[in-house]
Specification:
Keywords: Disulfide bond, Repeat. By secondary structure, the chain is mostly beta strands. 0% of the residues lie in helices and 43% in strands. The protein contains no helices and 20 strands.
């Protein structure tokens, strides 16, 4: 018997809030992909199983053109999306609002619940948004020696490009194969910097590697040149990320890797 995975669509618009208990699903503004109506309020209260983290990913986001994504300076009658109980705002309220047409990065819950509220007002209308949510293992955001053994891939600090939490120690091991070396590319990074190159607050460290750039042993603050590239000394390398207990706002790093065919120099 062939099993078909279902995607649950939660499109009903309820001002009081629709309660959703599921491991994954889909939500959207009224009438999407057609234009939403004015003066609508839709609320989704989404809960995934305990011990899980909820990840919300926007697939489309088209509200009022020309407005900032953080709603700064937005017209009072413009549509917007409010999200509550969001993780990793390091001392800031765990909620924010989104306007405009820039596709937001993924959103993660503080625990296993998140609320999404869409408000259209009396202003211009547009297609609105659609998004998917899923329950993920919280440990996958900050793993301990997670093995990455594909020929290419990517990983990031927790919640990147949103701010990473404090008191984190995360590590990844990129495992190549005989005759190959790992090329690690960090397009950019933004970490708290303390004590110059000592990086005594937050830092990342790429172990068992070398670079053709002049780089300190630990990376923090922001890079002087981008992208930053590292190459493994042998078939594998390890990346360590550490944040201390200081409550600051930094979005961390994202990284990609791939395996390169390596021919040792002839004797």
């Amino acid at each position: 018997q062939r099993l078909i995975e279902r995607c649950l669509f939660f499109t009903a618009c309820s001002p009081a809030g629709k309660s959703i208990n599921a491991t994954s699903g889909h939500i959207s503004s009224p009438n999407f992909p057609n234009n939403y109506d004015t003066n609508r309020i839709c609320t989704w209260n989404i809960t995934v199983p305990g011990g899980k983290t909820l990840k919300l990913t926007f697939l489309n986001f088209t509200l009022v053109a020309g407005e900032n994504d953080d709603c700064a300076g937005a017209a009072a009658d413009s549509a917007r999306v409010f999200i509550t109980n969001v993780a990793s705002h390091r001392g800031k309220p765990n909620d924010f609002k989104i306007c405009g047409q820039k596709l937001p990065p993924p959103v993660y819950s503080e625990e296993h619940f998140i609320q999404v509220r869409f408000e259209s007002r009396t202003g211009l209308v547009n297609k609105g948004f659609n998004a998917i949510f899923q329950a993920i293992d919280g440990d996958s955001l900050c793993p301990t020696d997670m093995i990455l053994d594909e020929t290419s891939g990517s990983f990031s600090s927790p919640y990147n490009p949103r701010n990473y939490p404090f008191n984190q120690t995360c590590s990844w091991k990129i495992i190549g194969k005989q005759g190959y070396r790992v090329e690690l590319t960090i397009p950019d990074y933004n970490l708290q910097g303390c004590d110059g190159a000592a990086c005594s607050c937050d830092y990342m460290e790429v172990q068992s590697s070398f670079s053709d750039q002049v780089l300190p042993g630990k990376l923090c603050n922001t890079p002087t040149h981008i992208p930053v590239k590292f190459y493994s000394l042998h078939e594998s390398l390890r990346v360590l990320f550490v944040s201390d207990d200081t409550s600051m706002d930094y979005d961390g790093f994202g990284a990609t890797y791939k395996l390169l065919n390596y021919s040792p120099p002839s004797k």
